[in-house]
Amino acid sequence: MPATELKRSESDKILGGVCSGLAKTYGWDLTITRIVTAVIVLGTGVGPVLYVLAWLLLPSDSGKVIAQQAAEQGKAWYDDQKAKREQGQQNSGPNDIYRGDDLR
């Protein structure tokens, strides 16, 4: 029986679970779905972009959306850095800029 809502599969996946989610939702054969998706991804310029977008934006079986999680983690890091700046502490992270404040 096909699912009613398109979601990525966390249990039956090879890469991101997109093909498995499509097959479950529409009642398609999983192997054929994977072959057709591979042909589209490898044979067109749009395929890889569409697959990555589906992986980032489709919720998983448990409801997690990768893009949303990344945005929340980025916001938490930004808020932490902003609070440190307000307290006069130096930033911590890979993109810090050495300001030379300790040179005399």
Structural description of this entry:
This protein has a domain at 18-86. Helices cover 53% and strands 0% of the residues. The chain has helices at residues 18-26, 30-43, 47-57, 66-86.
Order of helices and strands: HHHH
Strand content: under 5%
Spatial gap, N to C terminus: 73 Å
Supply Rg. Answer: 21 Å
Q: Count every helix, treating DSSP H or I runs of 4 or more residues as helices.
A: 4
Report the strand count: 0
Q: Helical percent range?
A: 40-55%
State the low-pLDDT regions, or none.
Answer: none
Average pLDDT taken over every residue = 81
The profile of the biggest β sheet is:
none
Write down the overall geometry: elongated
Helix/strand/pairing class, anyone? Answer: mainly alpha
Characteristics:
0% strand, mainly alpha, 4 helices
Topology:
Blueprint: H1 18-26, H2 30-43, H3 47-57, H4 66-86
Helix pairs in contact: 1-2, 2-3
What would you say about this model in short?
With 104 residues, the chain is an all-alpha fold. Helices cover 53% and strands 0% of the residues.
